[in-house]
Fold these 4 entries.
Entry 1:
Amino acid sequence: MSNPALSSSAPHTPVTQPSLEAARKARFWDRIARKYATDPIADVVGYETTLARVKGLLCMEHDVLEIGSGTGTIALRLAPFTRRYRATDLSAEMIAISQEKLAGAPTPQLSFEVADADVEIVPLGSQDVVIAFSVLHLVDDLDHTLALALRALRPGGMLLTKTPCVGEMNPLITHLALPIARALGKAPQVSCFKAPDLEAAMVRQGFEMISVERHGTTKSKDFRVFTIARKPT
């Protein structure tokens, strides 16, 4: 069930103080940010397919919010196709790396800022597109984050996501490897849902599902699901 405090009549109240859990997560990502920035893309073909798909959905009249923007690579690729692109991440170190990249490739419509995907970032109905890549499995409350995305969008606006559905991976990874890695401080807290669970959460929060796609080289084994959902008009 969605949070009553997220009803469309509620005023926009930006949250300025991070929660203790948000601060803990930020410390983890700050610590690994520089290494994360150098990690190679696991599936270059799938990655480029997804970016091409998103580019085809964007236009120069779009105001875009990206949550969980990491080190800014996707934002730098997509921002030139928009009117304004606001990229956010919980980790100050990730945003620092993004700013360094932006300094080397100035993009007037792009801005980076530290912000938590679990709090309201922008005013109600101010965005045409919300982008969430590799972040929805990391949020504390999936329904809550999706409700915030819905609030941020104008009627007819799109939510574009690519999400590792960890529940579709080998059970040895989800039930053994991940818990051990978390205990050692080598992995974040991860929600192990499957693609139908993600779709159900989007519908539950009021989105209309437009498309569910898999862009990996081997689609039958690709657990990174690309979804297009729309806020009803």
Entry 2:
Amino acid sequence: MNDRTRLAISVRDLYVDYEIVEQRRSAILDRVVRRRGTGHRVVRAVKGVTFDIHEGEAVALVGTNGSGKSTLAASIAGLLRPTSGEVLVSDVPRLLGVGSALMPGSTGWTNIRIGCLALGMPGDEIEERLSEIADFTELGEALDRPMRTYSSGMRARLHFAIATAVKPRILIIDEALTVGDAGFKAKSAARIEGLVADAGTLILVSHSPGEIRRQCSRALWLDKGMLRDDGPPNKVLSRYEKHVAGAEPPQSVAAPMASSTDPASPTTPRDTATAP
């Protein structure tokens, strides 16, 4: 069977809510003195999103800040439990985000070892590949220093090199390729292309149209937590850019029908929740 006919990710009617605690003093005043308010409010970050991604696809998530892209990515990775709906995956997704921390007080070398162990790499393989991973970072003698002395770009290089040291079946990247100079971006892009070519599945959260067109064959546009468009990057980006410029009102795309009997469906449930 062709890899692209097999599902890697299936998202069905997904809702993800956040509870935000209001300012403590005013919340107490509302509840006790004015006898109104609850001291918190609920923000619905993802609203009824449904889509499928097949093995070997490279898919971009596009949208303005606060549109729900990172929330959706974290939910697919199993880091956020859905309020309702479900996410099914064929393998364990790995989320590579620039903000993910390793151990700031430890050296770059130590963080490479710890990070690779966390990814399940055997100790002897880590030692065999230590120099290769270190060379990819281009950090040189900085690897002897604690990571807390690194700039954000240096930390991103280290994290990227570690997270891509093994070949995941499903890789989710949240803005990781937007950090660093042009040379490192090109090298990182080449590594991602290699992972996808190896029948891996890529989800890229990005604000960079050039990166999306270069890396992805499909784009999903999220707006206020809802799926507005799904298709080739040029088509979706054109609609999205017109919307941002105020030239086109958003319209939700029709959700595909779920099929519990589809033999190509992913088999691993991920953070399934049922509506109350």
Entry 3:
Amino acid sequence: MKFTGPLVPATLVQRYKRFLFDAILTDGMAITGSCPNTGSMRGLTTPGSRIWLSEHDSTTRKYRHMLEIVEADGTLVGINTGLPNRIAEEAISAGQVSNLDSYDTLRREQRYGRNSRIDILLSDAEKGLAYVEVKNVHFSRLSGLAEFPDSPTERGAKHLEELGDMVAAGHRAIMLYLVQRDDCSRFRICRELDPVYARAFERASTRGVEAYAVKCQVSPLQIVATGPMMVDEAVPAVL
């Protein structure tokens, strides 16, 4: 996934109200921009961090700048939760997620379950349907280890239950964790921060929901899926 134009470097002053951030551009100008991530962004909001912004000239936008990348722990981290579905589609087409590239048709944002929308729906005359839910991952506490979630997510647990329902109905269901940082080689569910989600994940697994993680290479020019990561259930908790 290539950015439509070059990203603008800046220094983060603060991120607040979930949707907003203040920053200083390289020419010293102070700006306020929009943050396309309503989550906690744990570990990615330190004042003084180097960040990269996209610019938008549309008259319908209140803020010209949008936060895209944060530098943390010596690596670049993609935080825009509007991008993972596009990147996941590219990863699937490139054969990086099980055998999902063998399905004939790929559609995004299809209604299913309990008044929900599945991120990607794959269909094939012989293989049937495959429901793919995509989650953005940018949280890391241990070197080389990516984790999800970074805060409680009731909605995420609901999605896991709905995926299990699809398996029960005779379809294939996949939970795809897209890791928007390239300093990790393993992925795990963060039980300490959301035990309810962890239990939902375990239940989904017993029902036949598949789980995969894909690593990304992040730069101010593009964010590209580079291949699968190990989903590690044996990593000890961080105290």
Entry 4:
Amino acid sequence: MTAARRKFFIKTYGCQMNERDSEQVAVALTERGYAAADHEADADIVLLNTCSVRDMAEQKAIARMQSLQGRKRRQPALIIGFMGCMAQSRGGELARMLPQVDLVVGTQKYHKVADYVDQLIARERPDMDDLRGAIVDIAEEAGSQNAIKDHPPAARRATAFVSIMQGCDMRCTFCIVPATRGAERGRPAADIISEARALAADGVKEITLLGQIVNHYGRHEFPAVGGRAPFTQLLYALEELDGLARVRFTSPHPLGYKKDLIQAFRELKKLCEHIHLPLQSGSDRVLKAMHRAYTADQYRRLVADLRAARPDLAITTDIIVGFPGETDADYAATRRLVEEVRFDNAFIFRYSARHGTPAAALPDQVAEEVKDFRNKDLLGVLDRIAAANAAALLGRTVEILVEGPSRTKSSRSVGRTRTNKPVIINGGAELRGKIIPVKITDHTNYTFYGEPA
């Protein structure tokens, strides 16, 4: 079977950076003559791009691969493999645990996946030696942050992710990312601007800058200029690009919001009125144990400064409940801060011990039933806040960028406000990529419905 007749399917778990990495692999495979399959069952090559942030994400990927092994026993030519963070952290262990796996590729070797798929297919030729065993590559590679730069055709989309850096130096005690993504490494700003310019010329209206700690971009490699850090310089440069209408970024750290970045929210029209600002806990004692390096009051003051700079700013966050040693009083402090800040949305995680992280060895691990209660309780608080926030938008006219058809009804389209709220309207593919005013007519807590105004 030739490459041109082979189909691939990539299942992505986890964050937007994983989504962007999967896009890069898909482009590379397509350029080699492989075709993307719409469904996993139709593919000859199935790759799972994995996440290690929580144990549940790893278990889902392992269960999916166990199922694929059963299919491979019936279809020996099927190629199956792991990519990404779990592949990086567990490496050859995955190949030993799941002996039908052909490929295990870490976070710094996405650009090698197409080469390895070619090699695996070449093994089927009768003139090749039968090289048994999985290909495992989790080695570090200098410059790997520059390899995530290619995009699928933009004709089908209005938005794009742009990876500007890899790695993290923060060493939060609960987090495995420094072990799976390595040290902070930033791409040259000129390359990022060139990539964004090409996307805008191809019809993309909005880009989201990606990094593990995105607002720490370039702090080790590039100098501050005129009082602006490298990340802020990048935002001002993107403001000047023709055709680009919106800029977002994720995921930042509170410590990366210096005066120059706050000022950017006052001055830059393309910088959207939405930030994701991870809190993790509202308890100073827990924040210290997490090595977050800020207090709850410092977080409050930062929120106040950002809202003073952009009064209509929407704020979303990450929160962990049940961190080792978290008491009822600690949780109550988190709950109070959530009620005070009134986040537009939040990702709430029950603490999950990750092997090799300092928090996994801490005493006073919290019982699962306590984590579950706190998780549900905090979700209830957020739902009440979201309901009130949503009701305040009813009848208002907002600007949306139409991203494409609704997943549930092709006669409808979905777009997002500048504050990152999804809005569903009547209309099909002809609306994709258009920025239009919409009057909000109905809502759930987190999804809105509207009519072109």
